[in-house]
Amino acid sequence: MTRHQHPFVPYAPPRLSPEESLARGQELYRLLDQRRSVRWFSPDPVPLEAIETAVRIANTAPSGAHHQPWTFVATADPDVKRAVREAAEIEERKFYRERDAPDWHAALARLETDEHKEFLEVAPWLVVAFAQKSTPLPDGSLRKNYYVNESVGIACGMFITALHTMGLATLTHTPNPMGFLNEVFERPATERPYILFPVGYPAPDCEVPDLDRKPLGEALVVHAPLPRG
């Protein structure tokens, strides 16, 4: 048995048969292949417990040195949502009307997005994932965090997966810059906004762009030869 200088606990998850393992994976794929980013939301309420559950799932994500450098801030307050929308649309107008980014504008054309972000007020919840560049400690010092972008990105991916699994929809909204979110939500300078998630049910008349996902043959390269049976 390995001798440790820090606490360790046994880890022995159930060993699945190859058939059950593959069946579980294929079932999850069928579920997540239906996931789409949504910009038309129903105002129907979503219980806080659903947000809490999604964040609990996000908290299971791996992170650099297990520092878990994220904070999820959620609001259902109409006044706060209105303030977020107003500030976001200021930045979005600059992007769509003033910023010289023809390639980026062309890439977005098929999504038919513009500076109007009504969904930020319609969706029952707004959840902002903040990335912690450093974490304040009880003694007033700051702990440096590692692989922050990677860690928070994984947690956000699991947050999205959790929402879709519960029948909810979201959008990874990233107005640039997003510093106004620190002001609206009174977050410290040690955190920076990472993704703004409107969360709710899709509107009854919701539509999404007709897009295809990258085929497996383009997403996966099997470099080593397959084992022989």
UniProtKB/TrEMBL annotation:
Pfam families: Nitroreductase (PF00881)
Alphabetical keyword list: Flavoprotein, FMN, Oxidoreductase
Keyword Flavoprotein set for record: yes
Signal peptide: none
InterPro entries in the cross-refs: Nitroreductase, Nitroreductase-like, Nitroreductase/BluB
Nitroreductase domain sequence ranges: 33-201
Domain of life (superkingdom): Bacteria
Protein name as it appears in the record: Nitroreductase family protein
Taxonomic source organism: Amycolatopsis halotolerans
